[in-house]
Amino acid sequence: MREFISLLRIKQWIKNLFVFAPIVFSKRFLDLDFFLPTLIVFFLISFISSGLYIINDIVDSKKDRLHPDKKNRPIASGRIKKNFALLLSFILILTPLTYSFFMELNLFLIFLIYIVLNILYSFFLKKVVIIDVMVISANFVLRVFSGSMLFSIPISSWLILCTIFLSLFLGFSKRRFELYSLGGNAVNHRKVLSLYSIPFLDQMITIVTASTIISYALYTVSEETVKRFGSGLIYSLPFVLYGIFRYLFIVYVKGKGGDPTKVLT
Asked: For the whole model, what pTM was predicted?
C-alpha cells in the first residue's frame, strides 16, 4: 500500500488546491453549491495528475536512479513494474477525463489540454530551456481555470498574472535546487540543466519574485477587487511578502526548494 501511495504522489495534490482559487476569490468558498462541485474537480484533476506523474516516472526511471531522492521512487527502484504502472496511469487519466465530459464540456477541454501538455512535457518540452518551466506555470493556470469552468466565474487578470509569476518562481527555484544539489550529476539527471546556470536562475527568480509581489499588490487595490472584497485585502500583503521571503530564505540559505510540497508541508 505504501508503494502504491508513493506511486500516486498524493503529496503533490496540494498543487491542485489552485482549483479552489475562483470560488475563494469570488467569496463563494463556504457555499456548498459551489464548494462540493469544485471538490469533485479537485479529485478529478488530482487523479489525472497522478496518472501523468506515473508516465513521467516511467520515462525518467533511468535518470531518476541518479537523483538523491528520486532514486527511491517505486518505478526507479524497481519495486513496481512498468507495465502495471502504465496500465494504472491510463485508468487514472481516462476515467476522470470521461467523467468530466459529462460534467461540463469546457472542463473536459481544459483537462484535455492539461493532459496533452504534460505528455508533451514528459517526452519533449522538458528538454527545452525556459519552456520547461513555462509548462509548469501553464499547469497552475489550467488548474485555476478548471475551478471556474462549472460556474463560469470570471477570473481577475491580476489573479492570473499572480498565478503565472508565482508558479514561475517555484519552477525556477526548483531548477536552481537541482543544479545546486546534483552538481556534476545534474546533466545526467535532467539534460536541460546543462543549459541553465545558477547566476541566470538567480536573475530569473529575482524578476518573477518582484513580478509576483507587484501583481498581487495591484490585484488587492484594483477596482474590481475593492468592489468585491472592500479595501481591506491590501492588508494581506505583509503575509504574502513573508511567505515569499521565507521561501527565498529556504532556497538560498537552507539550500532547499527542489520540491515545493516538502517545503510547504
From this structure: 0.89
CA angle 111, 114, 118 (to 5 degrees): 145
pLDDT tens profile 95-129? 999 999 999 999 999 999 999 999 999 899 989 99
Q: Which residue has the higher pLDDT, 39 or 85?
A: 39
180-186: long-range contacts (C-beta < 8 A, 24 or more apart)? 180/255, 181/68, 181/255, 181/258, 182/66, 182/67, 182/68, 185/66
Spatial separation of the C-alpha atoms in residues 234 and 173, rounded to whole Å: 26
Helix (H) or strand (E) holding 26: none
DSSP one-letter code for 183: G
The CA distance from 249 to 209, in Å, is: 13
Q: Which residues contact 247 (CB under 8 A, 6 or more apart)?
A: 169, 173, 257, 263
- DSSP code of 254? S
Using the structure block, give the residue that is written with the C-alpha cell 459529462: 102
Quickly tell me which residue has 481555470 as its cell.
145
* Band of pLDDT at residue 93, cut at 50, 70 and 90: very high
Shortest CA distance to 208 belongs to which of 243, 179, 165, 249?
165
What cell numbers appear for 19 in the block?
482549483
Q: Strand, helix or coil at 85?
A: helix
Closest C-alpha among 26, 18, 33 to residue 170 = 18
Neighbours of 69 (CB within 10 A): 11
